[in-house]
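== Folding the chain ==

***
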Amino acid sequence: MAAARRPGAARRTTTALLAGTIGLLTPLTLAVPAWAQAAPADGYFGTPPPVDMDKLIPDTRQPDKTYTQTKGCVQRSTLGQDIQIKNRPWGQEYLQISKAQEIVKAARGSAGGGVRVAVIDTGVTKHPWFQDRLKSGGDYVATPTKNQPPGLEDCDGHGTEVAGIIGAKPDNPEVGFVGVAPDATIVSYRQLSENYEPAKQNSTANSGTPPSSSTNPPSGSSTELPPGGGGGSAEGDGTSPGQSNGGRQLEKAGTAGTLRTLAEIIHGIAERHEADVINMSVDNCRPASGSITEGEQQVQAAVRFAADAGIVIVAAAGNATDTCPQNDQPDARKPKTIVTPPWFADDVLSVGAIDEFGSVAPFSVHGPWVGVAAPGTKIVSLDPAEGSGSLANLTFENGDKASEIQGTSFASPYVAGLAALVKAMYPKLTAKGIVNRIKETAQHPAAPGGRDNFVGYGVIDPVAALTQVLPSEVGNQAPIPAPQMAQLPPANDHSSTPMIVALAGTAGGVLALLITLFVMHTIRRNRPAETGTRR
């Protein structure tokens, strides 16, 4: 019998050794560096590859190449009229921005005071409704032509409109428009421009003098411009002004702005602790090929570095155009279009757009990286033209076509502004905690897990984000009662007498019971016989 059991015992021993070996090797497998991990058979699509921190590049604090201005900058309307929109924009009403601001003011004394929001865009023009809260971050396009600090010249007009949604604070009580976090500080970085292009070799055009252009009409011209508008600026279908079919895309031919300089700025902001929140209403859109480019790796490493440094990173989800096709393929996990930086959803909160009817805006790019959504149509913001003190609700497309301001570019600053309010309300909350709070309190779509590829976790709810109690947050959980130790006398480990007495007593009782049962059984057996004899 013992011999028959030996094969089973051997098998059990072999299994135990194999399990132990796997347990020892598993940590070593997990320790393989990102660069050594092979790409999946079907490539990288919805989910990017692991972060390679070796791709983190230093911030040079200057343009990556020489750019020449080829178009005139946005100007004030030659009609000489300023528009004052007294009613609140629909987006503000929909999100109950004024109520959210009152909540933060009551608790902290201001709506975002002390929180710094970096705007990486086309620059931000000084406007009286920024007061003294607009700061210079840097210029990665060209040396400012009007003796402005780096980053405070916005030739395109896009960055000013974005920054206005975040932090504008009108001095006229009759004006309905106001920024989401009107007491926050804006730090501007000019990183791209449709009005500049790489300088040709031996070119002397980059002299710092703006070109003479029909899109930059002189004062008194008969050319009718929309209120607050100017040449060379449009949102259209793109993520920023200037193009009707391609949007403002990083690394687009004939424009200024690359993924490399974007990565530099993000790294520099985190390294120098220049901001608490970063807003990027800029994108790079390309066909999904299952691979990742070097520029994308640089941005991926930079956003990871910034996220680890405690910065909330918000980005526009991107707009569908002729050159950036919509992700409408059957398998949502394999998008045909990749948008960066939103692709890096582990570290970036990307924002889709809804329209004034509460529906997903048709231009808002879908994807597994979409985090939340916010208003992105019929936008009202600051007039970006130099010297203006009013608002704009129209912009230029290709220099001569007036159009409404729209795009995920303008949904993103709503979320960046909300992040600033949450930061002000909960100063000890981490960056990941702020992002989690915005996601968890959003108006979740009717989808598995409360998330889809159109609006992510849903349209943001600022009031809920500022007031709702989240059990998932450290410090806000219900207290866990401490275990109570039973007050019992110590065990008697030195004497076996009590145990022997107890067992003996039990055994005696059982024996007595058995004897009693035997006697009773015997008596009952004998009774019928005795009765029969007497009869």
Q: What stands out?
A: The radius of gyration is 35 Å. Residues 316 and 408 are 5 Å apart (CA to CA). Residues 497-534 form the longest helix (38 residues).
